[in-house]
Amino acid sequence: MNISQNHRRRTLISLTPLIDVVFILLIFFMRASSFVEWKYIELGVGESESLALNLSTQSLVEVDFNNQYSLNKKALPLGEIINRVREQVRQDLDHPVLIKPVNDLPLQELLTVLDALSQFAESNISLVKDQSQSEPNGH
Amino acid sequence: MDIDEPQQKRELETVLPLVNIVFLLLIFFMLAGAFTKADLFTISVPDASADTEANANDIMILMNSNSELAIEKTPYTEDQLIDFIQKTLVENQVISVQLKADKKVKSKDLIDIMEKLGAAGLQSIRLLTVINPDNSESF
Fold it and tell me: B13 — contact with chain A (CB < 8 Å)?
C-alpha cells in the first residue's frame, strides 16, 4: 500500500507541471501566431497635378458613392468599365488607368474598382485626387 | 496494491488523451503560425481578391481610420514619415513600401499621403489587403 501511494504521487508530480507548461506554451503560440495571408495591390505614386488628363490616351475611372462609376466622364456600370479598360490595356500594355474617387469615399469602396482593374492593369494604375471638391460633400 | 493500481490507471487514461491533444495543438500552432509584430493601431484591413503575396521585409506604414500614421510602434507625422522615407531611399536606393490602411480611411487622405511619398522619391506603394472569398469573382 505504501509503495503504491509513493508511486502514485510520483506520477502526478511529473505529469501536472508538464501539462501546465504545455498549456502555457499553447496559449503563447495561439496568441502570438498569425494566420492572416497578406496580399497587396501595387499602385504608382505621383502628384495629381503631374498626371495630365488626356482622355484619348488614358482611361479615367471616377468612383462615386453608392457604386456609381464613370469612364472618361461617361456613367457606366462597373462591369462595362472593366471590359472597356481591359480592351484598352490589351491593345496597349502601358495604357495608363487613372482612378479618381470622391474625396470621402472609404477605402473599401475604392478597392472594389481597384481590385477589379488590378487583375489586368496593375502596373499602370494611379490614383488621382478629386480637385473639384474642396469641401467635404456631407456624405 | 491491487485496489490502487486500477484507479491510478483510470486517472492516467483520462488525462493522457487531453495531454496528447494539447501537444498536437501546440505543435500545430508552432509550425503553422507565423509570428507578427504588434502594431500601434488596430487596423481593419480592406478585403480584395488580389493574390500577390506581401513580403514581411518591406517597410510597413500604418494608417488608421483617423488617418494617423505609424511605423510599427512609433507614431509619425506626415513630415516625419517623408523624412524617414527620403533617408531610407538615400541609404538603400530601392525600397519597397507597404501601406496598411484601414478600410474606413477616406480616399482623399490616402491619395494625399501617396502623393507626398511619391514626391519624396517613391515609385510605387503596395496597398495591403486580405483575401475575401466572396469578393473573388472576376469581371
Answer: no
